[in-house]
Amino acid sequence: MYFAIIDCGTTNSRVYLVDEKREIIAKASEKVGVVNVTIEGSNRILKEKLSEVFLEALKKANIKLTDVSFAITSGAITSEIGLLEIPHLLAPVSIDELARNVKKVRDKNVFPLDVPMVFVRGVKTVGNIDTSNLMNAGRVDFMRGEETQVAGFLSTHECNLPLTILFLTSHTMCVSVNSSGEIAGSVTTLSGQVYEAIVERTVIGKSIRKTDDFDNFTYFDTKIIEYAHYWVTRSGFLRGLLMPRLADVLLRTKWYERKLFLEATIAVEDMRTIAQLDRFGFSQDRDFVIMGKNEKRCRIYKYLLQKIRPEGLLRIISNTEDIDMLTINGAIDIARRCKLFE
To answer: How many separate domains does the chain show?
Structure first.
């Protein structure tokens, strides 16, 4: 028995083929995601590229499409800018509830290849509020994809509950897991996309561009993080974003120092959101798990988190393979719970 796991995010998509031993036998990926849908105004290119990635994985595994029993997927692929919009589940949500509420579809209008598709629903944080009042925009949140990674983490890691998992991707998302192992809700910011937009679409990009052979990936200086913290808390976030440019033109500084300052500036702003978790009813008196494929970014957030909550355990998961396996193990756990292997 073979099955597929499709991990479709904002900008990247991956297809994993798994055998009856729950072992990955092939993987294929493509830089395509739901952002392409927003740019083009149609999910046509997403369907085409995902199909190509799926077929590439089959070729690598040397198996046929008919050998694949089902494909399970989660993430932005289940949104209105994905393949099929599926309503969120309302937090708190257990992993068993995720499994009971998967959406099973076999429709070539949804996915061009003739394979049963199993969509894992996202989770929304709403609570008992007036949803017609824009004032409540800061009291709601949602996730698509992180719920599957949470399932993967809980099924493969020993941990103390309750805990907060901090995802650092194109967003910053704090996911609260309560003492019963339920996803209690989330709080999200646009940090990763803001950073990318600043680097690629503003004059700040020039001031943090690599100009020598210095190894920026291992560079970490807490003094610069403190500088960013000082100025953002006193002059504001927008002024802080401009400071790498000012430092480039008017001070004697290195490009990697200015880059770290910019990264820390965005992280400092995120701390304002993290410090308000109690407004959602999520206690900060708990362990934090920080997940992100950029190890330096994880270290910045860990350093700043220790300033606002010196007690408790802070754990980092930054290895790319380990993070990918969270999605895979989560999809496997959900598939097992909804009896797809029987």
So the answer is: 2
What confidence tier does 12 reach under pLDDT thresholds 50, 70, 90? confident
Return the CATH number at 168. 3.30.420.310
Range of the structural domain that residue 266 is part of? 161-312
pLDDT digit string, tens, across residues 273-291: 988 888 787 876 678 999 9
Cis peptide before 162 (omega within 30 of 0): yes
- Determine, yes or no, domain membership for 256: yes
Q: Are residues 175 and 292 in the same domain?
A: yes
Global pTM value: 0.92
φ, ψ dihedrals at 172, nearest 5°: -110, 125
Q: How confident is the model at residue 49 (pLDDT cuts 50, 70, 90)?
A: confident
